[in-house]
C-alpha cells in the first residue's frame, strides 16, 4: 500500500462514516413526518420479516402524517400491528386500504431525550473516524518501518490524515448541531 492509497482509503471510509451518521440522524424523528422513520419497522410477510417499504407504498400525506398503502389486501392489519408494536410511539389508524400514521407532537422532555440520542450518534461517528485515523497512521508507520517511505513523507502524510480527520469531525459536529436545532424547533 502506498501513502496515496492509505490517504484515499481513509478519506473514503470517513466519508462513509459521515453518510452513515446522516442516515441515522434521519431516523431520529422530529415533529415532522418522514417516510424513513418506518424503515426500521419490520412486518411478517409469509413467514419472513421484511421492512414495511417492501410490502407497502410509504408516502407523506401532509407535514405531520405518513400514509402507508399495502400492496396486498391482507397486509393492512399486520402492518398496523407492526407499527403499533414498534418503539416509535406511533398509533396508525386504518381508513379502508390506507393506513394513516399521524406524528404526535413532541413534549419538551422527549425533545431533550432525542437531542441526547443525536449527540450519542455523533459521538459514535467521531469514535469511528478516530479509529480510521489510528489505522491510517499505523499503516504509515509500517511503511516507514519497512523503509518504503521516508520520515518526512510519513510525517507529511500523518498531518494530512489529521487534517482530514479534523474536517470530518467538524462536518459531524455540524450535522449533529443542525439535527438538534431541528428537534428543538417547535
UniProtKB/TrEMBL annotation:
Residues 133-167 form a coiled coil. Its main location: cytoplasm. PANTHER family: MITOCHONDRIAL RIBOSOME RECYCLING FACTOR PSEUDO 1 (PTHR20982:SF3), RIBOSOME RECYCLING FACTOR (PTHR20982). It holds the Pfam family RRF. This is Ribosome-recycling factor. Responsible for the release of ribosomes from messenger RNA at the termination of protein biosynthesis. May increase the efficiency of translation by recycling ribosomes from one round of translation to another. It comes from the Bacteria. Residues 21-184 form the Ribosome recycling factor domain. It comes from Pseudaquabacterium terrae. It is found in: Cytoplasm. SUPFAM superfamilies: Ribosome recycling factor, RRF (SSF55194). NCBIfam families: frr. Keywords: Coiled coil, Cytoplasm, Protein biosynthesis. HAMAP family: RRF. Belongs to the RRF family.
